[in-house]
Structure formats: C-alpha cells, structure tokens
Amino acid sequence: MASVQDIGLSAAINLLSAFAFLFAFAMLRLQPVNDRVYFPKWYLKGIRGSPTRSRGIMTRFVNLDWTTYVKFLNWMPAALKMPEPELIEHAGLDSAVYIRIYLLGLKMFVPITLLAFGVLVPVNWTGETLENIDDLTFSNVDKLSISNVPPGSPRFWAHITMTYVFTLWTCYILYMEYKTVANMRLRHLAAESRRPDQLTVLVRNVPPDPDESVNEHVEHFFCVNHPDHYLCHQARFFSWLNVVYNANDLAKLVAQRKAMQNWLTYYENKFERKPSSRPTTKTGYGGFWGTTVDAIDFYTSKMDILARQEAVEREKIMNDPKSIMPAAFVSFRSRWGTAVCAQTQQCHNPTIWLTEWAPEPRDVFWDNLAIPYVELSIRRLLTTVALFFLIFCFMIPIAFVQSLANLEGIQKVLPFLKPVIEMKTVKSVIQGFLPGIALKIFLIILPTILMTMSQIEGYTSLSYLDRRSAEKYFWFIIVNVFLGSIITGTAFQQLKSFLEQPPTEIPKTVGVSIPMKATFFITYIMVDGWAGIAAEILRVVPLVIFHLKNTFLVKTEQDRQQAMDPGHLDFATSEPRIQFYFLLGLVYAAVAPILLPFIIVFFAFAYVVFRHQVINVYDQKYESGARYWPDVHRRLIICLIISQLLMMGLLSTKKFAKVTALLLPQPILTFWFYRYCAGRFESAFSKFPLQEAMVKDTLEKATEPNLNLKEYLKEAYVHPVFKGNDFDRPRAVDEEESNPLVRTKRTSQGTTRYNSEASSSATATPVANTGSPRLM
Amino acid sequence: MASVQDIGLSAAINLLSAFAFLFAFAMLRLQPVNDRVYFPKWYLKGIRGSPTRSRGIMTRFVNLDWTTYVKFLNWMPAALKMPEPELIEHAGLDSAVYIRIYLLGLKMFVPITLLAFGVLVPVNWTGETLENIDDLTFSNVDKLSISNVPPGSPRFWAHITMTYVFTLWTCYILYMEYKTVANMRLRHLAAESRRPDQLTVLVRNVPPDPDESVNEHVEHFFCVNHPDHYLCHQARFFSWLNVVYNANDLAKLVAQRKAMQNWLTYYENKFERKPSSRPTTKTGYGGFWGTTVDAIDFYTSKMDILARQEAVEREKIMNDPKSIMPAAFVSFRSRWGTAVCAQTQQCHNPTIWLTEWAPEPRDVFWDNLAIPYVELSIRRLLTTVALFFLIFCFMIPIAFVQSLANLEGIQKVLPFLKPVIEMKTVKSVIQGFLPGIALKIFLIILPTILMTMSQIEGYTSLSYLDRRSAEKYFWFIIVNVFLGSIITGTAFQQLKSFLEQPPTEIPKTVGVSIPMKATFFITYIMVDGWAGIAAEILRVVPLVIFHLKNTFLVKTEQDRQQAMDPGHLDFATSEPRIQFYFLLGLVYAAVAPILLPFIIVFFAFAYVVFRHQVINVYDQKYESGARYWPDVHRRLIICLIISQLLMMGLLSTKKFAKVTALLLPQPILTFWFYRYCAGRFESAFSKFPLQEAMVKDTLEKATEPNLNLKEYLKEAYVHPVFKGNDFDRPRAVDEEESNPLVRTKRTSQGTTRYNSEASSSATATPVANTGSPRLM
Predict the structure, then answer these.
(1) Are residues A184 and A213 both part of a single domain?
(2) Do B373 and A680 touch (CB under 8 A)?
(3) A 483-512: CB under 8 A from B
(4) Which residues form a coiled coil (chains A, B) (predicted)?
C-alpha cells in the first residue's frame, strides 16, 4: 500500500492539475468573447448585454486590462458574497438548497475531523501492531488507521465512543439542516407570488363516461363534488379546466418546422454575409443530392407547407375526441380549495379521479399523464426487477461485448475482417481500447438508462423523474462503486457470496477490507472529486459548442441567446455522487481518519465552485422548492447506517465481539431518528397546509379584489405544441419577470448589485456591460 | 412418527370429545334457565324476554318437551340460514366479515385439497423412496408426503407446478374477497344512518396558546381555517366543540360509587328475600371487621357521601383549566367538511393540529388522546424493542422462574420450607405442575401484555388497539408456535443460529423439517382447533358465572341484564390464531396434503359455530365497519410468502436446486400483488371519499331540512364520567335503535323473524318468548 509520501505526491499532482484548470478558467472568463459561456445566467435574466460595437475590434474579443489578470482568483470571494436570500431569489430555492448539501458536508465533517485527529489518530498511532510485522504491504498511512490497534486491545473503547459521538453529531446536524430547509421551503412558498400551480390540481385516471366527453365529465364531477360555492354558482368565472391533448403527430410537425427554421436561418445568415450570391441547396436529404434550388426560397416554401399541415393537424386533433386523454388540470378559485382537492380522495374507487398537486407548467412531463392504474402498477414491478438486474448483472452484457471485442472473438464472428485486424496498429488499438470502452460507454449512458426507466415508471413531473433517477443511481453507486471497490469480483458474485454467507458475516467481510482500501479512496477523491469539480467550472464542451454555433449559425441576438448552453444542476446524477463522498467520510471517520481532510477539501472546493456556477451559469429547467430534501436526508441516513454496520463488522473481527453488541443500538436509534424526522418535517415537502392556504387566499382577496383568475390561468397548462408559433420561448411561463408585485423589483435591483460584484473582473473591462442590440 | 391408524384414532378421540361438547351444548341450551347464557344477544336487542311466572315452576327451569331433544343438532342449519345482509344488520359488519374469514378458508382450501389429492398424493405415493429405507421412523403418512419422492426426481415438476397453481388460486380468492369486503364496507357506510362520528374529527396536539384557553383556541382555529361558511357565519348553530377532560379522580369516585351500588343492591336483595331481619355489615374493609351496622343504611349513607364528593370533583375539574387536555372532537355541519378536515394537513407544523376521523363514541380510548408527538414517537420505539425481546426472549424469565420452581431451587432460596417440600405429595405436585404452570400463566396473560403494549403505543380507539395487538400476537405465533414447533430450541437460540447462517440456509433448515412435523400439526389442529371451537360454543365460564350471579346478586330485570356476559369476538387474539391455520394449510398444501382435510374440517366447523355465536351470543363493543380487513389480507399474504420461501428451501435440498430458481418469481409476484391490492382497495378502509360525502349530505339536506345538528351532537362525545348518573348504560349511543328511518323498522322485523327461526328449539318450548317484566 501507498506510503504518506506517495499520497502526498499524488495529492500534489492532483492539486496542480486542479489549479491548472482553475487558471485556465480564470483566464478564459476574462475574455469578453467568452462572456456568454461563463455568465449566461445574467444574459438570460436580461441584465447583461453584449459589448457594443463602437469600441475597438480587439477589445471586443480579448481583455487587455492587465490588472484583472492579477486578481484572477477573485471570483471565489465574489461567489461567496451573495447572501442566501438573494441567492434564492436569483437562482431559485432548488439551487440554493442544493449547494447547502456541500455546506452540510463541511458542517458535518470539520468537527468530526478535528475530533478524529485529536483522539483516534494518537490512539491508532501508538497502537504499535504494524511495527512488529515485517511486511512491506503496510506503511505509515496504515499506522494512522484502526489496523494499527492490536486485536482485543482496550483502545477500541475509544473507537466505540467516537462512533457514538460521530453518530450523535451527524444526527444533530441532519436534524438542524432538515429543519432549516423545511423552514426555507415554507417561507419560500409563503412569499411566492401567484403561480398557476398553486391553484391547480392534476386529475388523472378520469373514468370513461358513455354519455359525456372527458371535458364535460370532469367539469360536472368537480361542479358536483367541489364546493358548489366555487364551481357551480360561478363556474364560468372561477374555475377553468384544461384537458390535456394527445398530440404526437403535431409535435413531430412542429419539430420538423423548427429544423426547417434553423436551416432557413442558416441560409439567410449566409446570404446576409454575402449579399452578392443567393445561397443554393439540393432538394435531397440533408441537402447533399438532388436538384439545386435557391435555398431561402426552398426552405421558405417548405416552412409554408409545414405550417399549413400543422394548422390542419391542430384543427384535426382539436376536434378528434379520441385524442383527448383521460387526465386534466383542474384549477380552483382559492388555494384552500386546491389544497383540499389535492389531499383528499375523490371517489370510492381509489384508482380513478386521482388528484395531486399540479407540477409547475414547465415541470410537467406530458407523456406520462394518461397511464391507467393497472398498467402503472405493472410498469413499476418490471422496472424494479430491471433495476435489480441492472445493478447486479450489468457486467454480464459488458463482459459479453468485451469477449466479442477481443481479437479472436472478432475473427470468429466476422472472418472477412481477418486481414484488417492483423494489421499491427489496428490490433493494438483493439487490444488497448475496446474492452475498456464498452464499460466506459455504459457508464456514460447509465444516467440516461436510469432516467428512461423512471420515465417508464410513469411519473408525471420532471422533478419527480429526477428524484427517482437519483435514487436508482445512488444504489448503483453503493453496490458497484463502493462495495465493488472494497470487495473484488462483480456485483453478481458478491450477491451470490452474500446469499451464501450468514447475515452477520457480510459486515465482517466488508468491514475487514475497509482499512486496506483507504489509500485507494483517497486517490479516488482527488481524481474524481477535485479534478472533476475543476473541470466542471471550465465548461470545455459548452465553450467549444458556443464558439462553433456563434461562428456558423448565429445571426440575431435571439439566436445567440439560444446558442448559449447554460446547463443546469443535474440532480439525478450529481446528488448520488455527493452521497458517495458522505458515505466515504462516515465509513472512514472512525477507521482511517486520514481520509477526512481530503473529503473536507472536496466539499469546500465544490461549495465555492457550484455557488459560482449557480450564480453565473446554470439555468434550472424547473423550480420544485427543494422538494428533493427528504430524499437527500434519507440517503444520508442510509449512508450513516451502512457505516455503523460496517464498523460493527470490523470490530467483531478484532477479538472484541462482546463489546460490539454495544454498537447495536446505533442503527436502531438512527432508524428511529429517521422515522421521527420524517414525521416531523416530511409533510412540509409534500402537502400544503390549509392554514397557509387560507392566509394566502385572504391576502390575495384583500390586495387584488378584482383579479380575473380565469384569464390568468387560461394559457398556463397548455401542451407545448398548442402554444402556436412561439415554440422558441425558453420557458412556458416566467412568472418572476411578468409579475407586477413589489418583490420583483427588489429582485432585479439585488441581482444587479451582486452581478456587478460577482463579475467584477468582467465589468472592470471598459468594453463589457454596455447593452447594445447587435454584435459578433 | 405416527401411522395412519394412530392419526385415525387420535381424530376419532378428538371428534368424540368435540361431539360430547356439542351434545352438552345442545342439551344445556334447550333449558330455559340457560336461555340468557346462550341467547343473550336477543335479550340485549330487547326482542326476547324472560319466561313468564304464570307457567309451572318446573318448566321455567327445565325443558320437558322431548321432541326438541331429538332435533338437538338443528342449531346448525339455523345458524346458516340467516342471509348475509340480515346478519350485517343484526350483528354488525365487523362480525359478519369476521366469520367470512372462515368461509375464505373453505373457499381457499377446498379446491386446493381436491387438486392436491388428485395430483400430488398419487405422485408422492408412487415415489417409493421410503419403502427402500428400512426405518421405523417412517410410516404410511409419510408416503403421502413429499418425503417419499427420491431426490432429483422429475416428479418434483408436479410440486413446482402445483405451488404456482395454489399461489394463483390463493391470490385470486384473496383479490375477490378484498373486493367483496371493500364493497360491503362502502355499501355499509353509504347505507348507514346518521352517526356522530360521520360528522366529527378528532383533533390532537392542540398547541398551547398564551392568550386563549384550549377551548377558545380550537374554536378560533377552525373558524378561521375551515369553511367560514360553515363555522363562522353559523358557528353557534352548525358546529360544536367538545374538549376532552382529564378526569381520573372523578373516574375513581364513580368506580367506587358503582361498587357501593353493587353492595347496596346485594343487601337490598337480601333484605327483600328475608324481610324479617335487616341485613348487617361491618365497617372495615370488605365488611370483615369493624363495628356491625345496618348494611342498607351504611351503604346508602356512603353512596350519599360519594355522590357529594363526585359533584364537588366534577365541579372542580369543570372549572380547572389545568385538567383540560390539548385534544378535541370537532364536529362539522356536513360530511364533506368532515372528510376534508380529516384528510388534510391543517398547519405547516405536521406535529400539531393533527386531525383524523373520530372513532365511534363507544370506540374511543380516552386515555390516549393527549400524548405529545415526541413522547408518542419514543413510546413506539420502546414498544417495538420490547416486542422484539418479548418474542425472542420470553423464554428467559420463564426459564428463570422454572429454575426457581424446581425443588433444589426452592430449598436454596427459602430453606425454611425444606420440611414442607420434602413431603411426598407436595414434592410430586411441585415437580409435575410448577414448571409447566409458569409457561401456561404467561401464555394466558400474553394477550393482555400485548394489549397493554398497544395502549402504551398511544392509539386512540379500541378498534385500532385490537388491530395492533393482533399484529403483535401474529408475529408471536409465527415465531414461537410455528417456527418453534418445527425447529427445536427457544426462539432466541433460533435467532442466533439464523444470524450465523447464510440467509439462503434458513428456508432450507426450516423447509427440511416441515414434512416430518405433519403429524404433530395434525394433532395440534384437532386438539386446539376442533376441541377449542367446541368449547367456545359451550361457554362454560359465562354459564357458571351467570348462575352464580343470578343466584346471589340479581334482583331486578336490569340487574339480570347486567349479569349476562354475552362476550364478544376478540379480534386481537382470535384472528392471529386463524392466521396460523391458514399458514399451516398453505405450507403443507404442496408438502403433505394429508393435513388439508383437517384444516377444512376446522374451518367448516368454526364457520358454523361462530355464525351461531355471532347471531345469538356476542355483543360487540364497537363497530368499525370491517376496518381490519387490510390487516387480515396482509397477514394472509405474509403466510403465503412464508410458505413459498419454505417450499424453495425444501426443494433446494432435494438435488433439484437449479429448478428451484423457477420458484423465485413467486414471492416477488405475490409481493407485487399485495402492493397492487393495497393501492386498489386499502383506501376504502381508511378514507372517506368526497363524492360519497357529498351524496349523503345532499340526501340529508333534502330529507331533513330542519335538523338540529348541534343538539344531536351535543352529548355524543362526552367522557363517560361526565355522563351523570347513567353509568350503567351499556352503550354510549345506540343509533340503530333510536333512529327514525325506515331501515330500522325492517331491521327489527328481520331480526325477529330470524330469531324465531334460529332459536327454533327454544321457541318450541311453550314457555319462552312471551315477554314479561320479572322472573327468577
């Protein structure tokens, strides 16, 4: 195993590479030409415009002010400067709470590290077991770990006590964080201005009725069963029904027209640059063959045809009763009525007339709105079985591909390739890359596979899909990355051996291997954690793509807006990865505390980087109000319990078995703590209390007595394809911007202020920040 | 092991003893003197009166009509005659659905038995394994079981196929039954006449308010947050709040006065029989010492003192704000409003203002209404841990008592007893009885212990307490009776060996022992099942107690009413015992089908007996509308999955391991089936849909527009001690009787008709059924 020197060297290399990334980032972000790659959020908010043409052509692309280069790291304090309330208003509660996860890691592990280094490291160091063993496989690093304590030594009392201290501290921090996040969410919901989803309920599984259309049936049902006061007496005024239409053909047409629009824009762009010759194209697929025609005329006429087809199709499905799906967004006059409808059972058959809070309009996953109950139930069963096989048997198809991908395999299956394969360079490429590449490709597409599985499961909102995918990914990481690294062999072999071992043996088997893997995981944290975060901030792929698009496609300001790829925090993949670092920290806290500083560096670095990204870059697809926190909390508890069980397994092999029973209350109490927290806070993330609803209703009635709610809700939940020609609109409804309340004004003031501070280096260049309609 | 002849003999003996019980029952029930023991339900309903005095003194006690003795078994068809709808009206849905569990057993096992005897018995019988083994431990019975099939034989395909058929059939029957019961419940709720609990919500954890009393706080909170239409504008008319009072001292006084009343009645009774001398008593405890006084005067004066104390105490706690508990029964004007309040969250803090459907007034468990959330959470944790130790370690204290109870132990602890112990008779008694008696006493008080644990857990209704106790008892039976009989050693030893075995070994260990235990369980079914049921119908203890009370205490008709002990179906203890028979049937269906006919006889016999008891005897304490069915269903599914796992374990030891994997989908699909059923039906047992509520509200508004709801609800949820002097009233509110709707009339007509049929033997005597106010 690696010595302290080896780890130090490795740390130095990784730190250097991380700093190289950071330096590159600091240089690139100062160039005005990259401004839209590193500060897209401000452009989307409309606060920052392109530099003016009037300045020198050089300064428009390159930053020549040398003072800004000296302070190349000042984005870090800038990122930390924005206070949390402003951050929530600027980037949304989802993002603000997400970066709190990193902060939580710091809060949790800094005291644990101090304690572990103060108590456990001296205890381990003076254990003097490994010094007596004349074995090269041990090094100074292991002397700091629990391996250095002789079996049966009373020194283990220190470890047992510390696991209790760590558990108590972790639970305390988790409790406080849950409380804080729950309060943040409640405040957020209370402060929120009017949004369509506050007044809307998603009704699914509307039963068929022989006499009525779905539309009529829904209207009658809610007129009868929901406050006649609200619906019947003033139905045309207060309530509004929007039945979701099944319009896949139309969606295809719209997508086609969008593609045509892109081509047309491209050629118009070309023509504008060279007004002397009109651009031509060929009529075949992709413009590569067929007769040559005038490109702009060709695409304009194609656009016309598609527009007509679209109108016909739209008319057709509007009138076709078969394309109406048995689901509806039902809106109510008051938040109280909405809360009541969303939380109660409507019909004695619990599989029809299912009501739930409507997701935000841009959060709706339209494809899953009309799945019948039985089908949904079968889909979930199949996905669960598939997930099990994916986690435990994913190596089987990959091993199969790998076996095909070796030389003999290919020669056997495709004998005619023999002469090619026997060429020396081809041979070495195949031998070197192919086997690894199959696994790499699988790991890259894994999040997509998991997301597809979640979609098959039939959840109705993007946020829910993200949460479910994160859950799946978490288990994949636990089994295949964590256990897979500790125990050799594939997950399936592990499963088999676990089934053939007594349940008390499993923590032992895993626990014994843990101290030996400390250096491996330290390297992992540095390569995957540190360097990965540094790469995140550099944004190489969006940088390249933006410049390519900007060179070839962009013509108007709106096109450039679209060419930006701000990206977003991908909860489904990044949250489970953070959980993995929590798991490592908790498992190694009492076993090999040397790992903890690396974890702390990771959390601190990631906190700063993601805070910067959230402020300047990411543009979230939806806002769920930190709805995911119960999942984060639950997974943290799972990590904690895993660490406790492994500690029990480890200690029971140290001739300390009797005392190990003292650790038994830990998982039980932790589980109880989980149940307690769930009862205490979870409903804040899934239900909307009537009291709050009543307060908001009363307030609204007092401030806006003449509000036309029906008009307000009319367009909110229209399927994207029905939105007419404005398919380029980035968001379905952007309430924050079009809202007349006072708060919004404060928002833009606040964000402007922090914008100027956060990107002080960019504003320092005299070129930037003077809005002009056209450039580059 | 026992041969077929042995089992036959045992069956004959048990059948004979069961018939002896039945004969005794048939004889005793024909005597008019026992009429109140065997038909108390009809007396409680007020349909049947005591025989008149005018007839001969002999015929009042003994039935002299010999024809009725000839038809001594005709109570059986009589019990089966009452159709189910009448049964529901007569005895309540709880009882009607409860006896359906036995019917479910018949529906499930009759086809399974036919199939098993048609297919598996021939396959096993011709297996010819045991014939080659010259071992006396095998008998003909084992030749019918799976033990007779040679390892690795393709005959096991028959067993695998049959387990699938059995599983499918069981699931089908369970699904149909769940559907039927859910529909029965919905029909029952829909047909129900107005009851206070339909309009009432139990609110718990009312937060303290510095400015207001709980009473005011509750009123204000609901006025603000619940339909202002209902509460605020017409609050004094439509809504009614009843805060539950903490009145334990008063309850004690009332109990004392009740005891005094009993004594007074006893002496008045004595005096009436011998008017010549006034009875005397002594002033000391229990009337055994102290000065001699006139008994009637003494108790009358004591009663007076207590009544005055009671009045003072009542006044005191009425005015003492400290005795008001933070809980309330909040009533609403409409069922819709009640359904909304019960199903929604009121406050952003989910641990205060907790709302749930109020239980029936007589179902309320008053002591648990005011437990704070944190305390409740800790109580549940402690009870769970205690239950675990109770199930797995209950043998430890009993073994300790047993070790004390042997001769040497007693001599050591209490040396002065030595001469007594060494007497021969005392010695044999101690050696023979004491060790067994400790276990027996424990098993008798076990249901009480479990009920106490459920009470500590803090549930608020008797029905819920029953359901939770049943759950605990079920697990106790599974671990200690089922596994304990199959594997030797205490549960704790089993647990230890299971923890040290691989999880795949457990079904193997248990599975292998199963075929060998078939004869043991057959004997168990006959002794515990057949004879137990026969003893149930004889009601020896209530019979003796009634005659004792009747002789010494009863004076007026009302006293005699109270002397009757109709008993009730004790869900908490009897349902888990039925589950045990289901478990045996499912486990042995494919292993040793010979056991199945015994199970069928049990279910058929129990069905008839309990139908008779429900019609003629039992008086339920509450009516929950078959609220327990999801529990019954879940436990049946657990039994099914246990049987599947054990079958897998058994087959994997038969050199058939590869094919055993084919059984793996069984538990997964069964679990999915459980989830599906829960989603499909469970809410019918816990929620009240708004649609139904609206229908009932509308109907009520149309039929009774001038109903004074406030007056109606005024007295419904008053704590028993506040009900003034009528503490003898057997039920708090008996809606069925005092209800003016048409249905009730039909009820009494119907029940009268079936009364006369069901107890035709009794009515055949010319003495019975001519109501008179006083006799015996």
Answers:
(1) no
(2) yes
(3) 498-505
(4) none
Q: Is residue B662 part of a domain?
A: yes
pLDDT at residue A383 in the model: 92
- A33 vs A37: CA distance, rounded Å: 9
Distance CA A195, CA A361 (A): 9
pTM of the model: 0.79
Answer whether B232 touches A (CB < 8 Å).
no
Chain B residue closest to A496 (CA)?
B504
Residues of B in contact with A682 (CB under 8 A): 350
Check whether residue B219 and residue B103 sit in a common domain: no
Of B343, B351, B499, the CB nearest to A504: B499
Chunk chain A into consecutive blocks of 10 residues (it has 776) and report each block's average pLDDT, rounded to whole numbers: 70 82 78 74 68 53 65 73 84 89 93 90 76 57 77 84 92 93 87 79 81 77 67 30 50 76 75 74 66 78 83 71 71 83 82 82 78 86 90 75 63 70 69 70 87 88 90 90 74 68 73 80 83 79 78 64 75 90 92 89 90 84 87 94 89 75 88 90 83 82 77 70 47 37 36 40 36 33
Considering only CB atoms, A343 lies closest to which of B345, B347, B683, namely: B345
Query: Domain limits at A244?
Result: 204-359
Structure tokens that stand for A185 in this block: 């969410």
What pLDDT does residue A603 have? 92
Q: Which of B322, B337, B359 is the last residue of a domain?
A: B359
* Same domain (yes/no): B624, B498: yes
Query: Among the residues of B3-61, which ranges form H helices?
Result: 4-30, 35-38, 40-44, 57-61
Q: What is the distance between the alpha carbons of residues A727 and A716, in angstroms, rounded to a whole number? A: 15
Q: Is B260 on the interface with A (CB under 8 A)?
A: no
Show residues of chain B in contact with A672, CB under 8 Å.
Answer: 377, 381
Q: Which two tokens stand for residue B177?
A: 């039954």
Half-sphere exposure of B281 (CA within 13 A, CB side): 20
| One domain for residues A32 and A60 | yes
- DSSP lists the bridge partners of residue B281 as B293
Minimal Cα–Cα distance from B501 to chain A, Å?
4
Q: What are phi and psi of A242, to 5 degrees?
A: -135, 110
Per-residue pLDDT reduced to its tens digit, B683-739: 888 888 888 888 888 888 888 777 777 777 766 777 665 665 443 333 333 333 333
Q: Is residue B710 part of a domain?
A: no
DSSP state, residue A245 = E
Structure-token pair, residue B593:
């089908």
B693 lies in some domain? no
In the block, tokens 């100027």 appear at A756
Among B656, B687, B718, the domain-final residue is B687
**pLDDT tens-place string over residues A62-100:** 666 666 666 666 777 777 888 888 888 888 888 999 999
Helices first, then strands: H and E counts in chain A: 40, 6
Contacts of B688 in chain A (CB under 8 A): 345
Domain count for chain A, please give it: 2
A618, A545: one domain? yes
Q: What is the pLDDT of residues B12-22, one digit of tens each?
A: 888 888 888 88
B225 shares contact with chain A (CB less than 8 Å): yes
A519 and A561 housed in the same domain: yes
Same domain for A553 and A642, yes or no, is yes
The confidence score (pLDDT) of residue A600 equals: 93
Report how far residue B481's alpha carbon sits from residue B576's, in angstroms, rounded to the nearest whole number: 11
- Alpha helices of B462-570 — where are they, by DSSP H? 462-476, 484-486, 491-499, 505-513, 518-524, 532-538, 540-552, 557-563
- Whether B154 and B237 share a structural domain: no
* B769 is a domain residue: no
Q: What is the ipTM of this complex?
A: 0.75
Find the closest chain B residue to A670 by CA distance.
B381
Instruction: Dump pLDDT digits (tens) for B206-259.
Output: 887 777 777 777 778 887 777 554 443 332 222 223 334 455 667 777 777 777
User: At A154, phi and psi to the nearest 5?
Assistant: -65, -10
